[in-house]
């Protein structure tokens, strides 16, 4: 098993935790030097906080553990393409890489609707890759939304 699959599998497990809480099933893991330094899952509904996306939860956890609001050399693994808010926060935190599973054609900010990570006007660019466990993540999301309709 490659590291990308290992870490994205953990993010998928966290997405399932979100689903159990009635949240949109998105999970995120931040890894640096081969170790998880932060993780999170969607919690905006139960926390009454529109910023409580999986990526933000993972950032808060990682920054607290690192004792710094910047995370150079870190990689985020997330089950869904980050939105504009999350992409901006990831740029501000100076993450090195973002790897996401499924694309988000309606609100994605890593190439679907916007391409924040490759914007030359920003003072930091994040390396971005996608597709790792995309089918599994997409199926989790489709199943969740089917059950809501």
Output the keywords.
149 residues; alpha/beta; five-stranded mixed sheet; 5 helices; globular
Shape: globular
Strand content: 15-25%
Mean pLDDT: 97
Low-confidence stretches: none
How far from one another are the termini?
A: 36 Å
Number of E strands: 5
Could you give a quick summary of the protein structure above?
This protein is of the alpha/beta class. The chain is 40% helix and 19% strand.
Structure overview:
It is a single chain. Helix 1 runs parallel beside helix 5 (134-148). This protein has helices at 3-20, 44-47, 54-66, 84-92, 134-148, and strands at residues 27-32, 35-41, 75-80, 97-102, 127-130. The protein is globular. The protein has 149 residues and is an alpha/beta fold. It has a five-stranded mixed beta sheet. It is built from five helices and five strands, in the order αββααβαββα.
